[in-house]
């Protein structure tokens, strides 16, 4: 038996807090009876609906994918572009969804799950989960520009949290460089905007790691399930008191 809001979160209906709001607002029924109080526990044999729509009480699934370019990080796309769900090729029967997003032309590590609570925690800046990107940029960043990234840059009137930045290589002839940037925020196009703010537009961008997870052994377009100890470590990270 588990608390109703936890079951709803695992089913991907909403975050646990969002599920609590749905319950108290009278949107949830258990075995045909409306539930408005928190603390109710349900089991696998209970029938749970949200606004009369049954929820799927599936076992939690955790996927690590190496997203290629020209694929959208959504469950569906109104422009009929290929999505990360399409890449699963029906091999994952549970209804999973991306944890955060990678841009259409950005490649690299993307997590997918049906564990709504963990997904919500991983994407919340409060938990400061590091994500490392490697970018090919126009021009060669100076030490001062890299230092500026570490201190935080102003994007759309707001200063970003301090980042880790490092020049990995440079091509003097082509005037391009490879830069590593590690952030724990997740604003839209953030890394591209940060590099643009210090004068370097991004040519290519790849997310190399997510917390302790890397792309080792996972080719572009492929995926694997997280191991039990990896899931346990992710949950430990978001439970740490920041």
Automatic annotation (TrEMBL):
GO terms for molecular function: RNA binding; rRNA pseudouridine synthase activity. It is an enzyme of class 5 (isomerase). Keywords: Isomerase, RNA-binding. Residues 2-59 form the RNA-binding S4 domain. GO terms for cellular component: cytosol. The keyword Isomerase applies. Its EC number is 5.4.99.-. One of its GO terms (biological process) is enzyme-directed rRNA pseudouridine synthesis. The keyword RNA-binding applies. Belongs to the pseudouridine synthase RsuA family. This is Pseudouridine synthase. It comes from Secundilactobacillus folii. The lineage of its organism: Bacteria, Bacillati, Bacillota, Bacilli, Lactobacillales.
């Amino acid at each position: 038996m588990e608390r109703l809001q936890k079951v709803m979160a695992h089913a991907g209906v909403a975050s646990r807090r969002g599920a609590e709001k749905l319950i108290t607002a009278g949107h949830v029924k258990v075995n045909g009876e409306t539930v408005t109080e928190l603390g109710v526990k349900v089991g696998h044999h209970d029938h749970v609906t949200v606004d009369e729509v049954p929820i799927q009480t599936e076992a939690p699934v955790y996927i690590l994918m190496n997203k290629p370019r020209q694929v959208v990080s959504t469950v569906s796309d109104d422009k009929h572009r290929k999505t990360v769900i399409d890449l699963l090729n029906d091999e994952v029967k549970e209804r999973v969804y991306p944890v955060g997003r990678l841009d259409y032309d950005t490649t690299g590590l993307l997590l997918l799950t049906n564990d709504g609570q963990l997904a919500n925690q991983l994407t919340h800046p409060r938990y400061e989960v590091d994500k490392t990107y490697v970018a090919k940029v126009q021009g060669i960043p100076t030490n001062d520009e890299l230092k500026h990234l570490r201190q935080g840059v102003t994007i759309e009137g707001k200063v970003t949290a301090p980042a880790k930045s490092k020049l990995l290589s440079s091509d003097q002839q082509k005037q391009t460089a490879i830069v590593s940037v590690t952030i724990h925020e997740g604003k839209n196009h953030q890394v591209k905007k940060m590099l643009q703010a210090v004068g370097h537009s991004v040519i290519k961008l790849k997310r190399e790691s997510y917390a302790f997870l890397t792309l080792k052994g996972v080719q572009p377009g492929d995926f694997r399930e997280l191991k039990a100890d990896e899931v346990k470590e992710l949950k430990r990270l978001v439970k740490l008191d920041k």
